[in-house]
Amino acid sequence: MSSAPRTARGRATRDRILDSALKVFGEVGYHDASIVRITEGAGVAMGTFYLYFEGKLQVFNELVEDLNRRMRHRMTQAIAAAPNRLEAERAGFRAFFAFTTEVPQLYRIIRQAEFVSPEAMHLHYGRIVDGYRKALAAASDAGEIAPVDPEVTAWALMGIGEIIGMRWILWQEGSDGAPPIPDDVFEHTLDFITRALRPDKE
Amino acid sequence: MSSAPRTARGRATRDRILDSALKVFGEVGYHDASIVRITEGAGVAMGTFYLYFEGKLQVFNELVEDLNRRMRHRMTQAIAAAPNRLEAERAGFRAFFAFTTEVPQLYRIIRQAEFVSPEAMHLHYGRIVDGYRKALAAASDAGEIAPVDPEVTAWALMGIGEIIGMRWILWQEGSDGAPPIPDDVFEHTLDFITRALRPDKE
Amino acid sequence: MSSAPRTARGRATRDRILDSALKVFGEVGYHDASIVRITEGAGVAMGTFYLYFEGKLQVFNELVEDLNRRMRHRMTQAIAAAPNRLEAERAGFRAFFAFTTEVPQLYRIIRQAEFVSPEAMHLHYGRIVDGYRKALAAASDAGEIAPVDPEVTAWALMGIGEIIGMRWILWQEGSDGAPPIPDDVFEHTLDFITRALRPDKE
Amino acid sequence: MSSAPRTARGRATRDRILDSALKVFGEVGYHDASIVRITEGAGVAMGTFYLYFEGKLQVFNELVEDLNRRMRHRMTQAIAAAPNRLEAERAGFRAFFAFTTEVPQLYRIIRQAEFVSPEAMHLHYGRIVDGYRKALAAASDAGEIAPVDPEVTAWALMGIGEIIGMRWILWQEGSDGAPPIPDDVFEHTLDFITRALRPDKE
DNA sequence: AATGAATGAGAGTTCATTCAT
DNA sequence: TATGAATGAACTCTCATTCAT
Lengths: 202, 202, 202, 202
Prior knowledge:
4 copies of one chain form a homotetramer. The first copy, chain A, starts with 7 loop residues before the first helix and ends in a 5-residue tail after the last helix. Chain A has helices at 8-28, 35-42, 46-52, 56-79, 85-102, 105-116, 118-141, 150-168, 183-197. Chain A is an all-alpha fold. Chain A has 2 domains: 1-54, Arc Repressor Mutant, subunit A (Orthogonal Bundle), CATH 1.10.10; 56-197, Tetracycline Repressor, domain 2 (Orthogonal Bundle). The structure holds a DNA duplex.
């Protein structure tokens, strides 16, 4: 039976396992990620894994949850000071790409979740869209952006971010980690988004 | 050793296996799809599978290849008569959504390919982008659309199609198949794309 | 998934596994009986086990069922010609001890069932008692034996058979199998039973 | 290394572990009884177990030993005042059933011992039979009972007690413990025994 | 062309036991 | 005296693939 760590040592061990799981899931995928490989990466014995996690699936779900939270946190922080929606988009995408340069596994983990843990996946997208939709609705009402449908637009923007990041961050990943998104790609992406969102000139 | 079917009967068997594989991969995913399940679905014995395919991975690759070809064919056909790029986008997206309503598994199969067969995945996206990029470059040069970066724009559009279709086709899938995309979602999506692409008023 | 054998070869393999399971369960007990050991004893690979059985527990249950059926069959046959209940007891016990000399594992398997598969155990005892009770009730009514309570008496007789057989057959087991029950033990046992059952002299 | 408790506190801890072990072994059986579960039941940490016991097997043996001693003590006490063997049987069975109503686990523990610790099991049955045999031999010589074979008779009586108690005490066990044996079952059982033992009328 | 019995490496998971604290 | 984190051997079970028929 897994249980929460009761000591500082236990907490550290648990974190090392979670870190290792992120790397292994990101590298070889859920199915080819074996518990041994995860624990070896964490420098502990196999049984130790089960002191802290109920099983392979639970650690995966926890990872998705964790990444989602951290990602949204980073984006929220980045957006805070933006004077309007278009600036907010720029800051938000900047933050998103920066985050996934640090944790390129995010793309892979989410896409895997389709079969591994659909609930986790729906939660992930759902949480992002929820916030996005409200912000877009407000901006649309305020005339900061064109009168778009907030729901569809939120999904479209999310789809753009995902595929661009996948193409220019994840797929460029080398042994020394993922590169930042090229400046021109970022600008072209924002051009696209800006055109799609900016209010029509009267 | 697998080999090409020499008789009509053989061809039919092979097709039934491929059909079954599409269903099973789409339903439970590559890893949980067992050869027995695929062959049972095709109404043949397990050994028969290996008469026509070299293994599980090969059948997956063939499936991706096949879906990609059929999808592009449908889109090309649909676009043929379009008078300009914006109309072509409308027709192309219409065709794409129609195709994936028939074969919603496409979304799942492609997203799985990330780990199952990265080459197949890159080929899939690559082929689509290649055509897209050229068309966008031409349209951009011709002033039919705004002066966008063809590569980034192609990816962005693909990302939109994928996520919108996933959300409103795949995820709405019931026991009687996937529904067509709702009209308003389709229109909102095309509003978004149109705004992003239409040339600036001078 | 396990399934019934479809060919003669399959049937033979299944039987060999069942035989081996009986030996191994009887020798080291359910928990220390590993599937590998069972399959090695049957001369097949581990995976073969799962072609014919759903798991370790299922094979155990099947074994209990099988032993119970065979045992009751042997006893029923032996009793058939008995002129009265006391003779039937003699013939029945004779047959029971003969059977368990051939299959001394019976004692061990049943006693294990307490934890391994209580349902199987209840079924085992239940089936025996059912028949016994009816026979005793009839004999009691007919005045062939004393006016005993059939239920309690059935259990008592069963308890006697089990413990005497365990003591003088199972525990005497050597490498060359279990010995028959010593004649005097058998006679003493039947003396005891006879006294307990015979009608009071008027 | 385990060692005898040196303080009153240690003694109490040890007893709590033993109590918990009895419950757990009785409930889920030796193999499914985990040390954690036993220690949790005793309200101590896992490591504490090994301060007082050498291992799982040792605690099991100690339990068998303990139960055997307590059971025989209760029966000896109960029999002490009996005027003859038949009365002694009545008192002894009464005490046995009373004891196992308090500790129904006894049945389960003994039957498990077959594989867990054959020595413990033989010792258990051996000790009971030893006393029984002598008493029966004496009673037989004295003409208090029929001229039975003491050894076989001792085992037969033990077998009766075990199976009747199992059927009407252990198997009736509810969440609030085991019920006493029903009066009529007790009387029928003693009828059976009495008939089997009473001296022939001359 | 088709079958399905057989294989065995490899997976996730459990748990008695040790030992540093 | 007591703790609980850590270990790793051993377990049951799965399934892609082979091959005799």
